[in-house]
Amino acid sequence: MASSLKELKTQFLEYMEIEKxxxxxxxxxxxxxxxxxxxxxxVNNPSAITETSVREFRMQLNRSLGVSGTMKRNxxxxxxxxxxxxxxxxxxxxxxxxNPERIExxxxxxxxxxxxxxDELNRLMKSPQGETLPALRDRAIFELLFxxxxxxxxxxxxxxxxxxxxxxxxxxxxxDKVRVVFLSPSAKRAVAEYIKKRGDMSEALxxxxxxxxxxxxxxxxxxxxxxxxxxxxxxxxxxxxxxxxAYY
Length: 248
Fold this sequence. Notes:
Largest sheet: 2 strands, antiparallel
CATH class of the largest domain: Mainly Alpha
Order of helices and strands: HHHEEHHHHEEHH
CATH superfamily of the largest domain: Intergrase catalytic core
Oligomer: single chain
CATH topology of the largest domain: hpI Integrase, Chain A
Helix content: 40-55%
Number of strands: 4
CATH architecture of the largest domain: Orthogonal Bundle
Low-confidence stretches: 240-248
Number of domains: 2
Number of helices: 9
Strand order of the largest sheet: 1-2
């Protein structure tokens, strides 16, 4: 068994990367956050981690200066999330330490959202008109985005082999985690109509029909392109006052 917290931390980071599939960047962040606590608390064994040491560390974080003043609550919570995950790992090894459930996250300030009304959403969903491939593609994009809750990056990674005979499908998202999303009847119809008219050999479900791609293998849409498509129709449907062309 490892004899020090730093050795246990190394085991934990290897576990997060190999067993849990966390990205290298996430593992590096966990390393930095946990080391910040260990250096502050000056503890060398798991049993020395106490509620008092964590509370004092939280006070230190709250008084730390960030780029724009005091450290943001979300950033403080990243430290606590890493520490809590480390404590859960110690518990998994049957090593006596602070119960990770004793660490509560700080309440974050609510985010300011650019909300869209039901009427605006309805106009947006109906804005791709016609039976051209770009229009069929864009209707399918909107139906999937707004009915399944897919992230834009997940949407772009979908392939044509999506099984429309089922009401749900699995998607691999952030942290390489797999989850199930549900298909509405309208989303299934929109995707089926789009695939039926496709004549290219690309495996990607959503491809670019930009002028530069004519006569070439059609490339997979990027998240940035999807964002431009949504923004373009948003202008056209009246959610914004301006108007932009939608041709991607």
